[in-house]
């Protein structure tokens, strides 16, 4: 067999794998990355990037309609949106990403990688790669298909098919109530597609309850049939129609069905069994991203099940690439909480934006999670429409901001914003939480007027009462 040796072998060339490799190269290591699909991964071609393009036109049109005097009418130009999507994903061609790898000094091997021994990876059963120091599994996650009779035979869409669509179906039924379900329901409704959302519980279940409620109301206003507390019992396809039978005996029919009920790790065939781990399972790691019980195997990103978000995966990747290089060269490892070589923020300071109408931006703990953790909680709620920046934004601005305060320490531990354009508020809240900035100190961080950021002043005024 053809063999080669490197300091580090990275399996998976999505954003996470790319960043692990890049940080390790910058740390002086030789690195090879193995990819069986497109360099750039799920986020670049089927998730984050194309989905936001599908959402953007509808959001811009709604924003213009809400601005008095804009005089905007009409509908989303779907063909133009899909053309822009194709540009963003480079027509599913990864030549640009490959060029970046080469420029960064990272070698690329195309093919399916499996761990076949200690510090050993075999590609397509033909080429053996050996690592002097480490192997990092960065293969991400895939859509989870629930065990519903008839579902697989009905040829369901996942987020991949939904973001890569060539023609918008007349109607679409979506199974699930999470971020993917809500974002794609928003996008497809803006295209004129008749959308039905079927969720077992409320929408956006892991967030503050008012966030999911507001999104459900907005989706219904946009013409989406939102049904919560329902279970799909059977799915059948007959020609161009899919029918979903629900637990209450009712049926929903549509042209296509999209499954957005969760994610599963792409670890089923990467050779975990060769190192005593369970194939197809999430991989347990410490805060340096090293697999527990191993000296040389790392796992980074979705496969760890810590925070299934691209930006958090890249954050983990920075820590992992740096610590792999440090350990390889005998440099001191900074693995204390908030140290350079750990991913501490994944435990309690994970930011996320749901690009629905309205947007939902959240970071840290919800009220329920904070109370469950035994924190002395104080909740600060504020109506964003009362902020001067909101009144200049739209005469119909409607939004809510919630801060979760740890009363014992006088610091913020969670924040949720719901409303138009609230995504840009999120990073300031993330900094306050990660930095454990005392609320008394935040009085001296003066928000500009008139902007939505003035909500920080309103929170502080409420806190002082």
TrEMBL record:
Record domain FAD/NAD(P)-binding: where: 6-312
Keywords: FAD, Flavoprotein
Superkingdom in the source lineage: Bacteria
Alphabetized Gene3D superfamilies for the sequence: 3.30.390.30, FAD/NAD(P)-binding domain (3.50.50.60)
Cofactor(s) the protein requires to work: FAD
Keyword match Transmembrane helix: no
All residue ranges annotated as the Pyridine nucleotide-disulphide oxidoreductase dimerisation domain in the record: 350-456
Bilayer-crossing regions: none
Record InterPro entries: FAD/NAD-bd_sf, FAD/NAD-binding_dom, FAD/NAD-linked_Rdtase_dimer_sf, Pyr_nuc-diS_OxRdtase, Pyr_nucl-diS_OxRdtase_dimer
Record PANTHER family: MERCURIC REDUCTASE
Entry similarity comment: Belongs to the class-I pyridine nucleotide-disulfide oxidoreductase family.
Name of protein: NAD(P)/FAD-dependent oxidoreductase
């Amino acid at each position: 067999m053809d063999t080669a040796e490197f300091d580090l072998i990275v399996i998976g060339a999505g954003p996470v794998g790319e960043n692990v490799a890049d940080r390790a190269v910058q740390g002086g290591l030789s690195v090879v990355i193995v990819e069986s699909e497109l360099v750039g991964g799920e986020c670049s071609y089927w998730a984050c990037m194309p989905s936001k393009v599908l959402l953007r036109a509808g959001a811009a049109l709604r924003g213009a309609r809400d601005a008095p005097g804009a005089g905007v009418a009409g509908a989303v130009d779907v063909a133009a949106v899909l053309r822009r999507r194709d540009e963003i994903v480079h027509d599913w061609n990864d030549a640009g990403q490959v060029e970046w790898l080469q420029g960064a000094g990272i070698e690329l091997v195309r093919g399916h990688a499996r761990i076949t021994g200690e510090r050993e990876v075999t590609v397509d059963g033909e080429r053996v790669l050996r690592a002097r120091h480490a192997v990092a599994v960065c293969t991400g996650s895939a859509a989870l298909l629930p065990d519903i009779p008839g579902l697989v035979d009905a040829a369901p869409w996942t987020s991949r098919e939904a973001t890569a669509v060539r023609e918008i179906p007349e109607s679409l039924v979506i199974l699930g109530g999470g971020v993917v379900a809500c974002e794609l329901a928003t996008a497809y409704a803006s295209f004129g597609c008749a959308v039905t959302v079927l969720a077992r519980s409320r929408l956006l279940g892991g967030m503050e309850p008012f966030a999911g409620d507001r999104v459900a109301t907005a989706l219904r206003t946009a013409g989406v049939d939102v049904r919560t507390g329902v279970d799909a019992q059977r799915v059948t396809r007959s020609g161009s129609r899919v029918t979903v039978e629900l637990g209450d005996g009712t049926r929903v029919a549509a042209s296509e069905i999209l499954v957005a009920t969760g994610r599963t790790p792409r670890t089923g065939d990467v050779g975990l069994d060769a190192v005593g781990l369970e194939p197809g399972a999430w991989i347990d790691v410490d805060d340096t991203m090293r697999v527990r019980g191993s000296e040389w195997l790392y796992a980074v990103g979705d496969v760890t099940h810590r925070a299934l978000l691209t930006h958090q995966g890249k954050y983990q990747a920075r820590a992992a690439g740096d610590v792999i290089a440090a350990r390889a060269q005998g440099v001191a490892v900074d693995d204390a909480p908030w140290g350079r070589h750990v991913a501490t923020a994944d435990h309690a300071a994970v930011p996320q934006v749901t690009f629905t109408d309205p947007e939902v931006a959240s970071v840290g703990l919800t009220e329920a999670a904070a109370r469950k953790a035994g924190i002395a909680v104080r909740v600060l709620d504020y109506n964003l429409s009362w902020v001067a920046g909101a009144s200049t934004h739209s005469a119909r601005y409607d939004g809510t901001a919630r801060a979760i305060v740890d009363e014992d320490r006088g610091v913020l531990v969670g924040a949720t914003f719901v409303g138009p354009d609230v995504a840009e508020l999120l990073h300031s809240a993330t900094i306050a939480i990660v930095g454990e900035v005392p609320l008394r100190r935040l009085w001296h961080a003066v928000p500009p007027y008139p902007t939505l950021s003035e909500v920080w002043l309103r929170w502080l005024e409420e806190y002082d009462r």
